[in-house]
């Protein structure tokens, strides 16, 4: 399960995030757990709306075009790949997501999508100040 396929449309959506055409995408496994697919795309720049959609009780990946100002007031931009595996998700599902994460990251890198990877297991991990502190 270490070499998970990534749907071509999903990779195209990832490139759109990298180019700034989309703010974020949410990705999940297809119904037979053989490929990573896009389940939602958005141009909404409101981070709270992103959190409301991504922090559920289901595992998922999100690629987010994050823009913020650091403590010195300097504007920063990063493409962040979130792996959301909540504590209350089923163990088997978390294992599948953990195993597939490496394939997803490799496919993004091969598609020239430079990104930072973060793993989140509880909603506080997704808080903007916690995310930006890790970047």
TrEMBL record:
Listed GO biological process terms: actin filament depolymerization
Transmembrane intervals: none
Localization of this protein: Nucleus matrix
Domain ADF-H, first and last residues per copy: 1-135
Alphabetic keyword roster: Actin-binding
One Gene Ontology MF term: actin binding
Keyword Kinase assigned: no
Major place of residence: nucleus
Lineage: Eukaryota, Fungi, Dikarya, Basidiomycota, Agaricomycotina
Listed name of the protein: Cofilin
UniProt cross-references to Pfam families, sorted A to Z: Cofilin_ADF
GO CC annotations, alphabetized: actin cytoskeleton; nuclear matrix
Similarity section: Belongs to the actin-binding proteins ADF family.
């Amino acid at each position: 399960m270490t070499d998970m396929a990534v749907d071509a449309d999903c990779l195209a959506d990832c490139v759109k995030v990298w180019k700034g055409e989309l703010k974020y995408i949410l990705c999940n496994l297809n119904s037979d757990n053989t490929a990573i697919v896009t389940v939602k795309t958005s141009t909404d720049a409101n981070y709270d709306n992103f959190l409301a959609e991504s922090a559920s009780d289901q595992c998922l990946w999100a690629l987010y075009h994050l823009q913020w100002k650091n403590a010195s007031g300097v504007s920063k931009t990063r493409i962040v790949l979130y792996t959301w595996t909540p504590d209350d998700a089923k163990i088997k599902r978390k294992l599948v997501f953990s195993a597939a994460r490496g394939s997803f990251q490799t496919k993004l890198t091969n598609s020239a999508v430079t990104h930072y990877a973060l793993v989140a297991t509880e909603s506080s991990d997704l808080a903007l100040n916690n995310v930006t502190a890790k970047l």
